[in-house]
Every structure is written in structure tokens, then in C-alpha cells.
């Protein structure tokens, strides 16, 4: 069964980061994220639909499960240290492995069978491809690169209908716009409402 590919050459993506959100991570941090290359051949940036950017970035401000009575708030300092970049993947030949597609899951189930058995899995589904087992998720990255893909598309762990993309180093960005994050940003307010977070009235 053929693996499912997807292209994002004409799709606008977003990334929240510090001064330069589209700066590739330092090499010393490579290997710490779920879709990093296990052989450290390249670096990876996580980009998302705009709403997914906010809900994924703000989730850490929710009260812990052991402290349900505490209200969650987005610190004002977060706004002064973060920027959001909007951009387009500029290469029309850019290809990505689409983990949302059943064809992809079946292909990976077959090709990664020895690893899945060794890790104690009985099957492969999206609960595994979006799980915490970095040995598995990074093996998917290695397989994707070895088979001509330059990124991985997957659903947000907090809103599965929203798209996230792991972009492999070497991708070209166009139409880049980097801007501060406004407290009145509609997608920020949507995410804060979903997560039960309060937004500061003013920021530094």
C-alpha cells in the first residue's frame, strides 16, 4: 500500500518562538524533541496552523492535575519574550509524510515492525505516533528522510483537527512575517478560552 504524502508549498504556517522564531535550534538541543533525527543529520522546526500554535504553546500554563483549584494565567512576560512568525514553505517540490493518513500508518506498521515488536507494541495507530516514545517517533523521522520526505505532518495533540508540521532543515521559507503577539489576537483568545487561561490586561 502506498504511503500518503502531502504538500504545503502554498500553505501558510506559523511558529511561536523568541526573537527569531524561524531560527533552527542549536545542535546541542537536537535529539530532545519527538520528531528530531536520531542520527543528528539535520535539525527540525515545529510549525503549525495558527490556532494550533497557540493551544500547544499555552497548554503548559494550565494548573496541574494535582492542583485543580489554582487558576491558570498567561504571564505578561510571555508576551514580551515571544514572537510569532507566519511563513510559506517556498519549495513546490517539498514533500511530507502525513501521519494523519491511514495509508501512512499501514506503511509504517509494516516497515517498522521489528522496532514495534521490540518496544512491546501490539499495533500502530495515532496514539503511538503522537505518543511520548521518542525512540518510535524519531524512527519515523529517520524513515521519512530515508524515503525522500522533508517533513512530517500530524494532528495537534490538543486539537486533532488542527495541523502541525515538523519541518526538516533545508526547507526554504518565503513571505515571512514576524510580529509581536497581541493580547487581542483572536486565535490566542480562542486557545486561552479552551484551556481556561486568563490573559493579562496589559503587557510590558
Note down, in words, how this protein is organized.
The protein has 204 residues and is α+β, with helices and mostly antiparallel strands. It has one domain. Helices cover 28% and strands 23% of the residues. The protein is built from seven helices and ten strands. A five-stranded mixed β-sheet has the order 1-6-7-8-3. It has a three-stranded antiparallel β-sheet with strand order 2-5-9. The protein has a two-stranded parallel sheet with strand order 4-10. Helix 1 crosses helix 7. It starts with a strand and ends in a 6-residue tail after the last strand.
What Rg, in angstroms, do the CA atoms define?
Answer: 18 Å
Mean pLDDT: 91
Helix and strand succession?
A: EEEHEHEEHHHHEEEHE
Q: What is the count of DSSP helices, taking H or I runs of 4+ residues? A: 7
Structural class: alpha+beta
Residue windows where pLDDT falls under 50 for at least 5 positions: none
Looking at this protein, list some descriptive labels.
alpha+beta, five-stranded mixed β-sheet, three-stranded antiparallel β-sheet, 204 residues
Amino acid at each position: 500500500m502506498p504511503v500518503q504524502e502531502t504538500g504545503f508549498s502554498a500553505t501558510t504556517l506559523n511558529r511561536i518562538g523568541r526573537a527569531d522564531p524561524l531560527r533552527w535550534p542549536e545542535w546541542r538541543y537536537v535529539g530532545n524533541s519527538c520528531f528530531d533525527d536520531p542520527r543528528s543529520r539535520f535539525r527540525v522546526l515545529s510549525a503549525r496552523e495558527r490556532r494550533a500554535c497557540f493551544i500547544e504553546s499555552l497548554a503548559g500554563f494550565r494548573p496541574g492535575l494535582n492542583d485543580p483549584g489554582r487558576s491558570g494565567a498567561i504571564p505578561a512576560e510571555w508576551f514580551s519574550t515571544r514572537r510569532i512568525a507566519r511563513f510559506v514553505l517556498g519549495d513546490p517540490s517539498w514533500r511530507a509524510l502525513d501521519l494523519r493518513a491511514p495509508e501512512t500508518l499501514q506503511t509504517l506498521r509494516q516497515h517498522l515492525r521489528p522496532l514495534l515488536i521490540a518496544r512491546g507494541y501490539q499495533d500502530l495507530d495515532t496514539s503511538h505516533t503522537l505518543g511520548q516514545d521518542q525512540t518510535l517517533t524519531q524512527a519515523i523521522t529517520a524513515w521519512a528522510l530515508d524515503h525522500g520526505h522533508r517533513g512530517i505532518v500530524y494532528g495537534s495533540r490538543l486539537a486533532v483537527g488542527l495541523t502541525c508540521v515538523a519541518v526538516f532543515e533545508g526547507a526554504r521559507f518565503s513571505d515571512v512575517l514576524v510580529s509581536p503577539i497581541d493580547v487581542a489576537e483572536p486565535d490566542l483568545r480562542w486557545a486561552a478560552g479552551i484551556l481556561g487561561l486568563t490573559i493579562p490586561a496589559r503587557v510590558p
